[in-house]
DUF2178 domain-containing protein ([Clostridium] leptum DSM 753), 150 residues
Amino acid sequence: MKSCKLPFSQVVKRRIYLLWAVLALLLAFMVLVGEKGLIDSRYTTGLSQLSYKALYFGGVIYTIYKIHYNRSLLKNKEKLRQEKILALDERTQWVHEKSGGPIMDIFLLCLAAAACALSFVDISAFNTAVSILFFAVLLKIAAYFYYKNK
């Protein structure tokens, strides 16, 4: 099968479109939560409120930062070239693959989204999701630094 190689600037443009879609989903989630009135301090604990706010607003801020960063790459050809070299670096790719790769990244993202949603629904399920998320992040970080220094 023939692979389709896009110029790196096209890859960055696709990332920007994907990030805008993620931001729209995050904002739609916030509107849904606000309209349904799901945040009720009588049913949620302080940990669930703090975790929800940290995960949600952290996600929004990170998404906005990445949109801005990728747009600045398109404006500066030297930064774009350096980012391409870094993205195609075999050592960096190897370390990422050994520390879980894209599957672990998707798992962490889904688990963070589940923790946000569960903070409104069921506290015991939320605590379980946050615990799994915490240990999965620790595992990813430990594996990353182990293979990076190997």
The CA atoms of residues 68 and 109 lie 21 Å apart. The chain is about 85% helix and 0% strand. The chain has a mean pLDDT of 88. The chain has one domain: 8-148.
